[in-house]
Amino acid sequence: REMEIPPDRFCYNLILGGLAKQLRWKEALSVLSDMEDKDRVQPDLFSYSHVVRACVRARKVKAAERAMERMNDAGIIPNVRVYSTMMAGYGATGKFYEAQRLMSDMQRRRIKPNEYTFASLTEAFVNAGLYEEALGVTDKMAAAGWSEDPVVRTLLLRIRVGQGDFDAALATLEVIRAARRDGGPRSALAVPYNALIGGAVQQGRRDVCVKVLRTMMGDGVAPNRNTFV
């Protein structure tokens, strides 16, 4: 601006992408407004995608919804990546009704969901305590031929914990552990252990808590604050 050269869409998208990585959602929304109002630069799919991602990653689902509305009002159709990002926001907050509505919108527009979209829909049901509905989504994923990744396996474990089926939950934990021993992804190592321990505490299963904690430490996975919440 100091050189009196107005920023173009490419520059704006670089800025928005950086803000999304840093979870600076308010600034991302402000930049989007400047883009439209000050410099008369029409945002594109990538512009809105960055803003939605910034809001979702900051757990500001309502703000992400507003960004999606602006996107639709501008006549830009979200792609599967944008839909999956928005679905992740609903999944993390247990907004299963909104997640279902979003899935219906994708189908109406003939945008094929991917495994991340379905995983987030599953998480929405799990976080809302609707375990049978969550299992129904995982069945659809299996029917579509998608293999179970660590995220889906952890969701399956959480479903079994929620249903009080600790034998099945422990069996799922063994599958996760075996995959890691075989060189599978080792990200978020404590998550499945913590999910089992947390559910066991809520349901008074001290025996399961002790067993999982010993297994966790034997596997060299350090407990964190979520382990003892």
Question: Could you list some keywords that capture this structure?
Answer:
229 residues, 12 helices, mainly alpha
Report on the architecture of this protein.
The protein has about 230 residues and is mainly alpha-helical. It folds into 3 domains: about 1-75, no CATH class; about 90-145, no CATH class; about 150-229. The protein has helices at about 10-20, 25-35, 45-55, 60-75, 80-95, 95-110, 115-125, 130-145, 150-160, 165-180, 190-200, 205-220. The longest helix is centred in the last third of the chain and has 16 residues, at about 165-180. The termini are far apart. InterPro entries: PPR_rpt, PROP1-like_PPR_dom, TPR-like_helical_dom_sf.
Structural class by sheet pairing and helices: mainly alpha
Q: What's the average pLDDT?
A: 90
Report the sheet-strand fraction.
under 5%
Order of helices and strands: HHHHHHHHHHHH
* Amount of helix: 55-70%
Shape: elongated
End-to-end separation in angstroms reads 50 Å
Provide the gyration radius in Å: 21 Å
Pfam families: PPR_3 (PF13812), PPR_long (PF17177)
Keywords: Repeat
PPR repeats: 8-42, 44-78, 79-113, 114-148, 189-223
Protein name: PROP1-like PPR domain-containing protein
